[in-house]
Amino acid sequence: MRVGYSYLKQQFANIDPYLSDIKKLILSEDLTLGKPVGEFEEGFSKLTGIPYAIGVSSGTDALILSLKILGIGPGDEVITTPNTFIATVGAIAMTGARPVFVDNNAEHTIDVTKIEKAITKRTKAIMPVHLSGTPADMPAIMKIAKRHSLRVVEDAAQAILASIDGKHVGSWGDAAGFSLHPLKNLNVWGDGGLIVTRSKELYKKLRLFRNHGLVNRDEVEFFGHNCRLDSLHAVIGNRLIKEAHFITNKRIEYANQFDEAFKKIPEFITLPPRRRNFKRVYHTYVIHAKRRDALLKRLLENGIDAKVHYPIPLHLQKAAKYLGYKKGDFPVCEAHCRNIITLPVHQYLTQEQMDYMIDCVYNFYKS
Amino acid sequence: MTGVIKIPYINLSQQHDAIKDKLMTAVEKVIGHGQFVLGPEVEEFESRFALFCGTKYAVGVGNGTDALIMALKAAGIGPGDEVISVANTFISTISSIALVGAKPVLVDVRDDYNIDPDLIEKAITKRTKAILPVHLTGRPADMDPIMGIAKKHGLKVIEDCAQAVGAEYKGKKVGTFGDIGVFSLHPLKTLNACGDGGVAVTNDKEIQEMLATYRDNGMKNRGEYVVWSSNSRLDTIQAAMLLVKLDHFEKWTEKRIANAKFYQKAFSHLNVVRFPVEHPYEKSVYHTFVIQADRRDALSSFLAEKGIGTKIHYPIPVHLQPAARQLGYKKGDLPRTEQQSQNILSLPVYPELNQENLGYIVQSIEEFYKGRGGS
Predict the structure, then answer these.
(1) Does residue B165 belong to the interface with chain A, where contact is any CB pair within 8 Å?
(2) Domain range for residue A354?
(3) Contact B358/B262 with Cβ under 8 angstroms?
(4) Which of B64, B226, B231 is closest, CB to CB, to A318?
(5) What's the pTM value of the predicted model, to 2 decimals?
(6) Which residue of A141, A188, A251, B266 is surrounded by the most CB atoms within 10 Å?
């Protein structure tokens, strides 16, 4: 049996409505920030209950624009974690600010007990990452931010519809970035992203910032970027957004099945803590495994697209050399890199595929 | 009274309607393989575009602005540096300089709307790192003196070819003179995606590698990051549609040139309407056909009443924009640019215009100056 990591093939099963939407768009001339983008922004805002959404060209750009619009730049420091996708830290560095790492906890999100030690006079913001769709501890983070007057930009790239006590991720900080990359829970068919905010003032500025700073065709308020959500992808998003709850529920259901199965072999598999008031949306299903590399190899041999998110922590990447971190600086994160494994958990998996994956893991440890 | 628009300034749906089946086949092909991020069509577009320009490499990116930003970074330009360019251009030429942290230094233009090479040397300081000429309207800037100055002073040259795919200067395509040539593939450009897109060309392997890394989050491969960067990739679906359009592109360009020639001939007897002289050594591709006209605003309104769409590229020069306050320019600093912004008017010039359309536009302009719409 083959269990793919990507689920795009299944998404194309009924392709005709998408094609007809694309054709209509191409003939409409409404190709830049037109109606489809507005409709998607509104839909996203409704989906998450966050008042303002701004469609941008990628999750990375969502973070860069959010930081820049909050005035973060050269000389500033932004606190985040080293176990995340490169874009989190890339976004901080692209503003000219310095990324400052704090180790993560057993849930793979930022360890809030270590944040305050990392705050200096130059610290301007915290950028928690809701990695794998698990919310970072936002109530604690917001308290720290308030105490030290720091901005908070949430990296919610992997966490559409995740929440804490029913309050959606992205609605805690000043702004948040979501990704619509083809492999995300809510995806488009190319790069795409969204910024959300509760501030009308930020919203107004961000709308200019993503479009050259243009107030109208002829007038430029400030030097801005060009990073607009493509209309073509907004058209795709407008169809897929209707499935967001189905996608999320299915992923949660499968993750729970995995959890139940792996709880039975605690000597081999350790699950991250699952806080009850946190809604995790499982962009990735990440667990800790004994003899990880051998397990990974076995799963791949058995046709299962298992992966590692991420094998090399960011503080040990070549790009981070100038920050002066070394091996041993973030022991929890580094230990995780050696034993984490990601199993497919997407909404189009069948029960047979789920059972097969669980069997493969059991069999590996039995032998 | 505003009449019904008979000839819009731009008519994309006409262009797309004629090739809609081919475009949709291209889209379906991408969906078939599902490689939406940097899929095979991006690479195919890059190699065809490089071949078209006559450069070794092309790198597809998210849009023309990002192409400029990444090109400036690849050329090593950043905070503390100065880059010389013009104020008579789309904002992103200048904002990209500002966004990499460098200072834009603006010089005046010639009658052809492009940078005046005679003014460049006076603007050079110890901090100057690059010249960023713009091939505005699809007309090549005067590259020989520009390259001469750059060589003499050890400056980089990044060409803003956003409006000039296929334009030539002394038999050589624009974008191939400087260190990097930067193109926009925006829907309103001559080679246009159905959304945002951009591409940069170069002959320098090292620059190509830098651009490819910059556009992809600084990734060398899935687990290895060599530099922090944003992400700005040419969309695969857009690349697939661009490949369809490339097949038509030379024909479309010839039609634009023919339309421009029609205008030039028709207006040669009308001294109230002026346009740049076309030098024998240049091939202009007419992204826009920009005239300088007496009583420009009245003419534009008159044409609107006649159902003819026109535009102004650009009514407020960059140095007088609120965004440029920090640069410290004032009215009068760039007299020719400012004077042109009062008189310039862009007429429809897209390939789908027919003889009847063109005749009607010329006739309407003549009518205006004969007095009926004048005064």
Answers:
(1) no
(2) 244-366
(3) yes
(4) B226
(5) 0.95
(6) A188
